[in-house]
Amino acid sequence: MSAGASGGRRGLSRFGAADRIVPPGAQSARSVGVMAAILAFFAVVALALALAAGRLAESWAGELAETATLQIFTDEPDVEDQARAALNVLRTTPGVRSVRMIEVEEQRALLEPWLGPEAALDGLPLPLLIDVGLDPAAFDRESLELRLAAEAPAAVFDDHSAWRGPLVLTAERLRVFALASLGLLAICFAAALSLAAHAAIAASGQVIQTLRLVGARDGFVAAAFTRRFALQAGTGAAVGTVLGLVLLALLPQASEPGFFLVGIGLAGWHWILPLAIPVASAGIAWAATARAVRRNLRKWS
Amino acid sequence: MIEFENVGFSYGKAAILEDANLAIAPGSFHFLVGPSGAGKTTFLRLCYLDLVPTTGHVRFFGRRISARDRDAIADLRRAVGVVHQDCQFIDHLPLIENIALPLQVSGVEMRERADDLTALLEWVDLTDRIDALPSELSGGERQRAAVARAVILSPEMILADEPTGNIDWDMSMRLLTLLVELNRMGKTVLIATHDLNLIRAAKARVQARVLRLSEGRILPAGADL
């Protein structure tokens, strides 16, 4: 092969992606990466919040709905009789799956995290507590309360619905809020991408003019810009996602003692979900840039 | 190949071309002359649909192409190689990528055309400059590179706008030789120039028709050309 031939073939090795035609120093393309990283970080946090709120709402609406307590205050003179009667009523009530007396020591253990180990619990009028397991589908609360009123009037049945309802509502609203935040982040990202693409096109007039001169179709030009922006956005979003996941890993987890109510970290397979954020970011970047570039190209002859 | 039918073009109220009728036959060699500002560049831009006529029509290979059909215009430009006075390269790409740009935008597999590219680089004597950026090239090298880019897709027609405007006489002759060789291969060549010596030199080698653009009209040039 001649020197010229080898030169031509050597030159071919450099041809790669069409996005090489986009000027490498395009400031707007670099800004896209930084912006994608920041927005992906917030998206991870919003996603974790949505998932945690969903978990809490599910837990409060589901698991906690399957438990209840029955209290009989010890200053009642016939507390032992009433307890026996209440147990009997519970055991014969449809939808009651289990009944268990909570011993005084267990009650003290439950109170200790709230009152501290040094608290003088002996002076407190602790009620007799019965833990009740329920099948919500088969359980009739009104019927139970009527029977208790007749046979154990000192017994107070509590299925936690008074505080569970607002908490479930709050958790559900929080989930909607987090999902709305995710949607807004996506819209914000798409809008910013459009602006960046407009800027890149405006700064690449000579390149576009040359491409049109040699017969480039709009699709080729748009692909070059969209590829560059999608790569920048995907890479930036991957960095932001990793940072967000590191932050979540450092937060107390819901499984840790005392954090079941406030753990906003991810759990189980939910850790996989944020990996979709860089892919979604690249997809949004692709679509937003393609639209902006094609609209701009129509201005060129 | 290209037919102008009552073509008029104006920038606002300034008429550049009026009621022009012209047919450029396949395989012909044309020069377009005229004073600066007469509209030679505008005429060439009409030839590759960079501008749309204000009145009349331009037919390409026997058909009209709508200005709205952007893909058809792009395809037309692959059949018409253009050499600009300022060459219009992409500054951040090395010479070989600039020359091969028409292949890339046409979706041609580069490796299939390696031999063509190599031969083309040898033909324009730029084999040793493939890594150079456009800003590192001399005026003559840029013009030869522009010719190479214009012909790499083997177009039917070559349009050149003042191709010798920035180069010395020796380099002008070298460039003219390339264009005459292309014409002998059957390519149609149209050169807009104000360099009368170039036209005389060309007419010594090839049968060239000279058109004069003056006051919006295209007319055959006088006997002096």
The CATH C-level class name of chain B: Alpha Beta
Shape of chain A: elongated
Query: Into which percent range does the helicity of residues of chain A fall?
Result: 55-70%
Separation of the first and last Cα atoms of chain A: 42 Å
Count of structural domains of chain B: 1
Any idea what the shape of chain B is? globular
How would you summarize this macromolecular structure in one to three sentences?
Chain A is of the alpha+beta class. Helices cover 63% and strands 8% of the residues of chain A. A 4-stranded antiparallel β-sheet of chain A has the order 2-3-1-4.
Describe this structure in words.
The complex is a heterodimer of chains A (301) and B (225). By secondary structure, chain A is an alpha+beta fold. Chain A folds into two domains: 14-61 and 165-300, no CATH class; 74-153, no CATH class. Helix content of chain A is 63%, strand content 8%. Chain A has a four-stranded antiparallel beta sheet. The longest helix of chain A has 43 residues, at 161-203. The mean pLDDT of chain B is 88. The two termini of chain B are 24 Å apart. By secondary structure, chain B is an alpha/beta fold. In chain B, the strands form two sheets. Chain B has a six-stranded mixed beta sheet with strand order 6-7-8-3-9-10, with helices on both faces. A four-stranded antiparallel beta sheet of chain B has the order 2-1-4-5, with helices on one face. Chain B has a single domain (22-220), classed as Rossmann fold, CATH 3.40.50.300. Chain B contains eight helices and ten strands. In chain B, helix 6 (139-151) packs parallel to helix 7 (169-184). Chains A and B meet through helix 1, helix 7 and helix 8 of A and helix 2, helix 4 and helix 5 of B.
Layout of helices and strands, plus pairs?
The complex is a heterodimer of chains A (301) and B (225).
Chain A: H1 3-12, H2 27-63, E1 67-72, H3 79-91, E2 96-102, H4 104-115, E3 128-134, H5 141-151, E4 155-158, H6 161-203, H7 205-213, H8 218-250, H9 276-297
Antiparallel strand pairs in A: 1-3, 1-4, 2-3
Helix pairs in contact in A: 2-6, 2-8, 3-5, 6-9, 8-9
Chain B: E1 2-11, E2 14-24, E3 29-33, H1 40-47, E4 55-60, E5 63-64, H2 70-79, E6 80-83, H3 95-99, H4 101-105, H5 114-123, H6 139-151, E7 157-161, H7 169-184, E8 188-192, H8 196-203, E9 208-214, E10 217-220
Parallel strand pairs in B: 3-8, 3-9, 6-7, 7-8
Antiparallel strand pairs in B: 1-2, 1-4, 4-5, 9-10
Helix pairs in contact in B: 6-7
